[in-house]
Amino acid sequence: MSDETVNIEINGEPLKARKGQMVIEVADDAGIRIPRFCYHKKLSVAANCRMCLVELEKAPKPMPACATPVGEGMKVYTQSPKALSAQKNTMEFLLINHPLDCPICDQGGECELQDLALGFGRGVSRYTEGKRVVSDPDLGPLISTDMTRCIHCTRCVRFTEEVAGYKELGATGRGEQMRIGTYIEQTVDHELSGNVIDLCPVGALNNKPFRFRGRAWEMTQHAQVSPHDPVGSNLWAHVLRGEFLRAVPRDNESINETWIADRDRYSNEGIYSEERVTTPLLRGKDGLQPVSWSEALEVAAKTLSDVIREHGADQLGALAAPGASVEEHFLFQALVRGLGSNNLDHRLGQVDFRSDGAEGHYPWFGITLEEIESLDGAMVIGSSLRKEAPMLAHRVRKAALNGTRVGLVNPAHYSYQFPTSGHLVRHGAELVTAAAEVVVALSEQLKASVPEEVQGLVKNVEPGAEARAIAEGLAAGESRWVMLGQLARSHPNWSELRALGLAAAGMANARFGVLSDGGNSAGAALAGVLPHRGPGAQAVKDAGLNAHEMFVSPRQAYLLLDCEPARDAWDSAAARDAMAGADKVIALASFMNEDLRQQADIVLPVGVYAESFGTRVNGEGRWQSSQGTVQPPGEARPAWKILRALGNVLELDGFEQMDPEEVLRDARAAIGEPGPGEENLDGVELAQPARPKGLWRLGEMPIYAVDALVRRSEPLQQTRDGRAAEARLAPADAEQLNVNDGDAVRVSLGNRGCRLLARIDTALPKGSVAVPVGLAETEGLGPRHGGVTVERI
Amino acid sequence: MKFHATKEFLPEDMREMINERVSRYPEGWQRSAVIDALREAQHRNGGYLDERWMDAIADQLDLPPIDVYEVATFYSMFETRPVGRNSVSICTNISCMLRGSDEIVEHAEKKLGIKVGQTTSDGRVYLKCEEECLAACKGAPMMMVNHKYHENLTPEKVDEILDGLE
Ligand code: SF4
Ligand code: FES
Ligand code: FES
């Protein structure tokens, strides 16, 4: 027996335990249930509820199982008269102030207090004194509060401090006066905040939009996968009478553990938005008019063939949302390629495509989420992490707290809530130089020579202290990782940033990865929704136009798969103009928007992620399928069905599938097993970045503006992150422009522009203005990154 | 989260005092200085704390404000709303209660025309709600007035003490 193992006995059953484990963990592993409220396997031990009291041989008093470490030969009794009486007495105390309002409580039926009261409570209360009354703080649009129900387990407090990383909730007052809340009325703003709902063992914190809409036992639960970012968090969709009422985490240790981000939890609220398209629409003389499916499909097919006959297949541009499923992506590309066009892309947010030929087969993290936790050193270039992929940020944070040295190179000072080896913040136009600094520092550190290809970028670059610290962190230990985020991918110098990232990874012998947009950009790339590659990353003969080219060299006709070009595109203004100028726009869309209303000729209503079988490939390269959980509303149909029908009307090959599983089989067969492929720099022309005139527009994608569904989720839009339409300026620039916090400003580029309120933000480097993309307020401005002028109005 | 005030709100000498306190504790335990900082802030702010002072202290100590609120609301010696100039705490814990503190409270309330927890309208006297034993049971009933103990109280003695307050 090793020193690390101890033998204990629980209820007479001999068990082996690791040294340092708490009795409750050993019991849980052995399937012996000890009642508890405050203990949670992912949080620190508070031992404040006393529900887990058990009897220990030789101990004079019952001991809390959650805070009692195992010892050799320990004998534990969880059900002895002494243990049971302690548990029952605790329960009686817990209930004295509890309102016992289960009939009107949303937690009823899934409440730990209710369940345990059934097992350990008395039938009748002996408590006759008055109960305390607690007023309910307003924690914002996502979490409802009924604080009289709180039993002060502090799980929610420990969550905000330990997992979210910033303590927003606390226990103020003491004794009878103790309250859980924020003390001063304010909303809880963290992007993982909704998890306190699942953690709260009682009905004190609940899902606010879901309030009073369904009972736990009436609903059915269905496995789903979130489509909003490349993590692919696992969810349970809870459904009542055909309606997707709420989402909760589905435990998956290797992906989302027991959490989900608020974006995954509340995006379902968008499904029932009034902007849902519920019938096929065709443009008549009074605008879009409802028509039958057969008519819509006929006209769509005819329109497509007419355009191609008159203008050539090259005049068709096709764009797909990166969150659509593999099945949809596969049929979409088959349709467009069947029509003879390679103008096909899902990378609407990108502008620099010079590296296309040298990139791997699909964008991936280069590592699994679990492996992140055991890294020694890491560097992230161009990512706000928390807002781009909250659960990925959570893993990185865990790693950093555990000793991984994480360095960051960014165009603004983002808050990470973890210790970093360095945070190098530079003006957007100098991001390449910043990355070059790290590369130089790394080569000095490791006595390795800078790879040939990037020599030109590191010439005369002198690393500063921050770059050295990042290099030192990255060089630490054995296992290392370099990742480029969405701000790097959307940068006009993506190729240079990528090349430097690759050079750093090469020198440090680190894995290399990319954080891309949407929930299935890996699947989109594999399925062939790319101008230069077909399914399975097979190069195509005549590469078509990429997303950006399709907008700046407008096409006669566009086919859209659930994307909103004016919101999604790198140059929103160019995208909108291209749509407006096109002869025909055919949109497979789940939601209506102003642009479609003006520009679309045919709108074919499609289902969103939970409304049809769909497979998504996450950033680890993991394929995850989920069934359709609810029906698309009205006449809307799963997009794969519509694409197949279109293919059939157009008499194209490869559209014979009877069900989505068959589409997936076909897609898999066409894709084969290409693997992630190699990332290299072959044939990539690198250039020195130019510094444009004026301020540098930093186009961040707000966390709640990433796709059509999230944009329709009212509760998410009401959060602080959802109200992101502001122009954020560095204090020095604001002073120079004579702009005060809250002033109206106009941000413009040539004759394009937008009007916003200014916010002064010390997180921004001088010379930058952060103007978010993906919002109606800013789509008139255009390019996501680059020079703009700002003036007070 | 938005701070109501940043550390610059604190007077320079107070920031120095806080830093000096921080230096007494091991690194990373700067939160140990919260109580000292709050006490100082309360004295400087006319006997109570508000969000500006608490947030500024949080900023100075690099803590989330809620950590400071927790401490400020936990200890009954800290006030988080405006109170009168003179703080009067009549002990009502067990020994004092047995020795007639209820009558003392009643007397004081009547005399001042306020209830426990309230301040006289002229802002002169704050009758604090004292929950804990003040550890002077041998002289019960007792009360504390502005940090000073008065024992073996009688209504007459209370009158005298209260009349003597500015
Ligand atoms: S609100 Fe819920 S999770 Fe938070 S302390 Fe109260 S019972 Fe525990
Ligand atoms: S679970 Fe052990 S004390 Fe709460
Ligand atoms: S009970 Fe009043 S001082 Fe102890």
Characterize the structure shown:
The complex is a heterodimer of chains A (793) and B (166). Chain A is an alpha/beta fold. Chain A is globular, with a radius of gyration of 28 Å. The termini of chain A are far apart. The mean pLDDT of chain A is 95. Chain B is of the alpha+beta class. Chain B folds into 2 domains: 7-74, Orthogonal Bundle (Arc Repressor Mutant, subunit A), CATH 1.10.10; 86-163, Glutaredoxin (3-Layer(aba) Sandwich), CATH 3.40.30.10. In chain B, strands 2-1-3-4 form a 4-stranded mixed sheet, with helices on one face. In chain B, helix 3 (51-61) crosses helix 4. The longest helix of chain B has 12 residues, at 101-112. Classes of the chains: A alpha/beta (793), B alpha+beta (166). The A-B interface holds A 161, 166-175, 177, 182-184, 186, 189 and B 1-2, 4, 51, 64-67, 69-70, 73-74, 131. The complex binds iron/sulfur cluster and FE2/S2 (inorganic) cluster (2 copies). Iron/sulfur cluster binds at residues 150-156, 180, 199-202, 204-205 of chain A.
Any idea of the CATH class of the largest domain in chain B? Alpha Beta
Please bin the fraction of helical residues of chain A: 25-40%
Strand portion of chain A: 15-25%
Sheet with most strands of chain B: 4 strands, mixed
Bound molecule types: iron/sulfur cluster, FE2/S2 (inorganic) cluster
Pattern of helices and strands of chain B: HHHHEHHEEEH
Oligomeric category: heterodimer
Beta-strand segment tally of chain B: 4
What's the shape of chain B? Answer: elongated
Structural class, judged by helices and strands of chain B? alpha+beta
